[in-house]
């Protein structure tokens, strides 16, 4: 399988579910509203997921965690999904997602923004030097 398309079936189903949510709700709601709606749509397409799973953040070889982070969704145990409801995605949001992928030891992440007039998403892959795939 070409590395670019890792977990392609899963990410396509997630993106399809996100488009369905955006088509129905449009933009302008709080993030939590989109999170709940996306959960409903992902169940419809038989995607298994966990919401708001807390993960410890470690620093170098310091033995104790220096904090925790909750990902919006971990789908099928392999794709991290982070939702936003903002006017525009910025590079800092990509950096944040890559940090979460490292913390959760996952390779593939989706950054989905419901806050624009049309749905925007970015699929990021931790192991690739040129990680960005835009829609």
Description:
Strand 5 (120-125) and strand 6 form a beta hairpin. Helix 1 crosses helix 2 (31-44). The protein has one domain: Lambda Exonuclease, Chain A (Alpha-Beta Complex). By secondary structure, it is of the alpha+beta class. The chain contains 3 helices and 6 strands; from the N terminus they run ααβββαβββ.
Which characteristics define this entry?
single chain; 135 residues; alpha+beta; Lambda Exonuclease, Chain A; 6 strands; 34% helix
Sum this structure up briefly.
The protein is of the alpha+beta class. It contains three helices and six strands. The radius of gyration is 15 Å and the shape is globular.
Write the layout of secondary structure elements.
Elements: H1 8-25, H2 31-44, E1 49-57, E2 67-75, E3 79-84, H3 91-104, E4 108-113, E5 120-125, E6 133-134
Parallel strand pairs: 3-4
Antiparallel strand pairs: 1-2, 2-3, 4-5, 5-6
Low-confidence runs of at least 5 consecutive residues = none
* Topology, number of strands: 6
- Largest beta-sheet characterization: 6 strands, mixed
CATH architecture group name? Alpha-Beta Complex
| DSSP summary: helix tally | 3
Quaternary state reads single chain
N/C terminus separation:
21 Å
Average per-residue pLDDT, rounded, comes to 89
Helix proportion: 25-40%
Shape: globular
Indicate the proportion of strand residues: 25-35%
Question: What's the number of structural domains?
Answer: 1
For this structure, the CATH topology is Lambda Exonuclease, Chain A
Strand order of the largest sheet: 1-2-3-4-5-6
Computed CA radius of gyration, to the nearest angstrom: 15 Å
Query: Structural class per helix/strand content?
Result: alpha+beta
Q: Give me the strand/helix succession.
A: HHEEEHEEE
CATH class label: Alpha Beta
